[in-house]
Every structure is written in structure tokens, then in C-alpha cells.
Automatic annotation (TrEMBL):
<feature type="transmembrane region" description="Helical">
    <location>
        <begin position="182"/>
        <end position="200"/>
    </location>
</feature>
<protein>
    <submittedName>
        <fullName>Solute carrier family 26 protein</fullName>
    </submittedName>
</protein>
<keyword id="KW-1133">Transmembrane helix</keyword>
<dbReference type="Pfam" id="PF01740">
    <property type="entry name" value="STAS"/>
</dbReference>
<feature type="transmembrane region" description="Helical">
    <location>
        <begin position="106"/>
        <end position="125"/>
    </location>
</feature>
<feature type="transmembrane region" description="Helical">
    <location>
        <begin position="137"/>
        <end position="156"/>
    </location>
</feature>
<feature type="transmembrane region" description="Helical">
    <location>
        <begin position="52"/>
        <end position="71"/>
    </location>
</feature>
<dbReference type="InterPro" id="IPR011547">
    <property type="entry name" value="SLC26A/SulP_dom"/>
</dbReference>
<dbReference type="InterPro" id="IPR036513">
    <property type="entry name" value="STAS_dom_sf"/>
</dbReference>
<dbReference type="Pfam" id="PF00916">
    <property type="entry name" value="Sulfate_transp"/>
</dbReference>
<feature type="transmembrane region" description="Helical">
    <location>
        <begin position="207"/>
        <end position="226"/>
    </location>
</feature>
<dbReference type="InterPro" id="IPR001902">
    <property type="entry name" value="SLC26A/SulP_fam"/>
</dbReference>
<dbReference type="GO" id="GO:0055085">
    <property type="term" value="P:transmembrane transport"/>
</dbReference>
<feature type="transmembrane region" description="Helical">
    <location>
        <begin position="254"/>
        <end position="274"/>
    </location>
</feature>
<feature type="transmembrane region" description="Helical">
    <location>
        <begin position="353"/>
        <end position="370"/>
    </location>
</feature>
<feature type="domain" description="STAS">
    <location>
        <begin position="442"/>
        <end position="557"/>
    </location>
</feature>
<feature type="transmembrane region" description="Helical">
    <location>
        <begin position="330"/>
        <end position="347"/>
    </location>
</feature>
Amino acid sequence: MLLRRSRLRWLPGLRSLLHYQPAWLRGDLLAGVTVAAYLIPQCMAYGELAGLSPIVGLWAILLPLFLYTFLGSSPQLSVGPESSTAIMTAVAIAPIVAQGDAAYPAIAALMALLVGLVFLVAYSLRLGFLADLLSKPILIGYMTGIGLVMITGQLAKTSGIPITSQTPLGEIREFVTGLANLHWPTVGVSLLVLFFLVVIQRRFPTAPGPLLAVLLATLLVASFQLDNQGVKVIGTIPAGLPRWQLPEFRWQDWPTLTASAIGVALVGYSDNILTARTFAVRHRYEIDANQELLALGVANLGNSFFQGFPISGSTSRTVIGDALGSRTQLFSLVSLGTVLLVLWWFRPVLAQFPQAALGAIVIYAATKLIDLQEFYRLHRYRRSEFWLAIVTTVGVLTTNMLIGVGVAVSLSVIDLFARLARPHAAILGEIPGMAGLHDIEDWPQAQTFPGLVIFRYDAQLCFANAEDFKRRVLIAIATAPQPVQWLLLNAEAIIDLDVTAADKLLELVRELQQRGVTLTIARAKQELIAELDRVGLVERIGGEHFYPTLPTAIAAFQQFRRSQIADEPPLTAG
């Protein structure tokens, strides 16, 4: 039993399939078939985008779908060729092929091998924690940006206007300037499909709207011979399956390709983890960031041995699967089976699918990624996180996914450090009739203890805020209504401290002692006390000045005050 559990720990997708519920089957089947209908023309296009033949784009979907089903931690993510990794692959390979005698497909397979190795090295170093820098505002902004990118990317398919730009802003510009060239039959098919999807979603939310839309659009095109009037269909789909083949090891190209592989892996992982976590939040399940590194690594390695090229997670296909009710990776196996059936027997049927209908389905799915209510909620809650989401969206639209996310993560870290460097601090007092101690700024009726300042610092002490901590302690003492005898530090938020903070705390102790103020500490954790002891601060402060709770520390101060009063000589008449 323990051995079985250990094996399943490495195969989260298999664990999910072993606990499959019959109620999930309908959604997984519909999602799998519809995603297959979408990914076939899409992956063929990405094969060309990577500089390879269209059939290689289809080959590159087969093994990743199978491997991720068992290794991936997301039950909904669809993996395979993607536009960003395809473009980066083409950019990296083209100069090498131009300078030598290397075959393009061989270098593409070698690139997939290197990308897979980068993922596996990152997995072995447990670098999945880097995904924790992708906060909720980044997810909101990223998915909004991706939604807009998906919409602009379908403008040519749904309008019939020739668009050559590869950037969202460029696509919009060419679309607006080319409105005179609208192809009305194509526009009509697109609008009918969009209208059909909106109506069926509202009236029959459980119906397989996208699949029905594609089939009806295909019937419409065939009945009225719209393909003869310029409505583009998928067209001939080549047959054949990839063969197992070792990548060509060209050691002279490894330095250049390795650098490019790191970039492709960064983009691919960013896209993968952002998409996976977005749907995990939406449907309340967990994603294992390190397991995703393993799954992508193995999928890319497998692709390299079957004449493929680098792959990652697909936002658009995941969105479509989610819209159809995908619940487990069984939908990927259904997509895989559908692709194989098409490659073997049903290529003529799929060849009649109108591209405008597929484009309309993508646009409809993309609108579900744009959640304006979330932006409004962020704006009300914290302006800095609202602008972080906006910057992420703008970054994705105006640069590329990696740069946009990189800028947003950098701003997120800066915002985190700003809050860490200048955290909230409070002077605590009692409120008549209310239990506990409270911030005197929040409660004007709070009463402090004469001669005692109870100070709470709501952050860890480190190099970033050590000077701020000392400054605010001294301000609290200087502004006290009566001369201060004890400073009581509520250390509940201070888990540990670095060398800079320890030295600054030592400076503070010396300065307080010169002023005749005794530093006492309450609610310090044992780990913190051990660190203070290692740097000599426990001895300097005095072990008797550490208290387990605030009430015991206050009682000790009151006892100290009573002893002082008792020791004072009586006043005599002059």
C-alpha cells in the first residue's frame, strides 16, 4: 500500500483517474472532442510558425497530451504547441540553420530536448517556489491580457481582413485600417456562431455549445457552398504519425541553444503555471508548482524523441475545455484519441470546418477570462494591487508574456519590500470594558500605563526595516505623555532576525540604557530568543526581562513601580 501511494505521488493525474466519478464523464468527453477540433488547425499553424511543416505541429501534440495526463498536477490544463514557444523556437533555430548544414527539424528536436532538461534541472532544485511570486493581481492582469491577445489573434479569421502583424496593437491597427476589406460571408459566419454561443449558454448552460456551433457552421458552409465564396475552411489534413528518432547531438550549437532553451522554458513555465493556477483558484483545487516542472520536462523530452519541438501549457485550449466542463485529464486523452482518429480516418470531415467558426469560439471563450469585477474589487481593496494588475495586462499586450509578467513580478516584489520596510506599528493601551490591548490610534479612549510604553511592530526584523524599527521606537518614547521607565516590545510578529537587525537592536538597547529606559520583551518565540542569545542580546537585556505574555510583563512593571514608590524616602516639612 505504501509503495502504491509513493508511486501515485509522482503521478497525480493517474491518482485522479483512479478516483474518477461518472458525473464527470459527459463534460470530459465534450471538452476533449471540442478541444481536438480546435487544436488540430491551431497546432498545424504553430508548426508552420516554428518553421516546420504543419504535420509536425500535429505530431507535437500527441505525446505531451499523453504524458501530462499522468504527470501533471492540473486536471484542466491542456499542453502542446503554443504561439510564444513556437516563435521563440523559430527565432533561435533560424540563424543556426542558416550558418551550417543542420536540418531544421533536427535542431527543433534538439531544442525540445534542451528545454526538457532545463525543466528537469529546475525540478531537481525545487525551483517551483518561484511561482509563488505570481500573486492574485498578476493572475487577474495576466488572464485579462491573454484574453485580449486571444481576441485580437482571431480578428483575421473572423473578418476575412488580411492581417500580418504578430502583436495585439498591430493586429488592431491593421483591422481598423482594413475595414473596407471586410469579407461579409466570413463575418456572417462569425457573428452567427457568437450569437448561437451566447443564446445557448444562457438558455441551455449545460449544452455543448462550442461543439454544436462548429458542426452547425460546417453544415451551413457545406449547404450554401460558402467555401466557394471565400469562407476559409481548415482544408486538407496530412496523414501519418511520427517515428521514434534520437535528436541530433551537435555540441557546437549547445551554448547558443541552451541559452535559448532557458528563455523558452521561462516563457513556457510562466504561461503554464499562470493558466493552471487561474483555473485552480476558480474551481478550488491545488497546483503543485514543482510537479508542473517535472511534467513539462518529461513532455518536452518525449517530444524531442518523436521529431517534435518545445511545448508548454495552452491558455486558449484550457479555456475551451473549461467552458465545456472538463474535470480531469481524461479530456486530454479524449483529445488525443480524436486527433489519432482524424489522422487515420476522419480527415475529410474536419477539413470542412470553417476557420471563422473556430475563431468565434476562441473569442467567446476569451471573454470569460476578462473579469472587470475583479479589477473593481482590487481598486476598492488596495490601489497598489489594482495598478499591478493593470501593469500586467499592459505588459502582456505591449511587450510579450515573459516581459509583461517579469515587470509585474518585479513591481510585486517592490510593493512587498515597501510594506516590509515600512510596516504598521502600534502603541498599545487598555480600553475600559474591553478585553485585551489595542492600538491607541484606532481607539482614542485607550489608556496607556504611566512610565510604560507597549510597542508592537507588525513585521519581521531584517535589514530592510531595522532602522525604521529603531526610529519608531525612539519616537514612541519621545512622544509618551510621561517619562518612560520601561519599553515593552510585543514580539509576536517577529519570528527571527538577521545580523543587520540584531546589530540595530543592540544599538537600541545601548541607547535606551543610556536614557534610563529598560527594554523588556513579551511573546517572543523560542527560536527568536535562541537567536538573540547567540548574538549576546539576552545577556545584555537580561533574561528576567523576557515574559511569556503581555499581562505578566505588565504585572512585573506594576510590581517594579510599587517597589520604587516603597523605596522612596518620605517627604518632610521644611
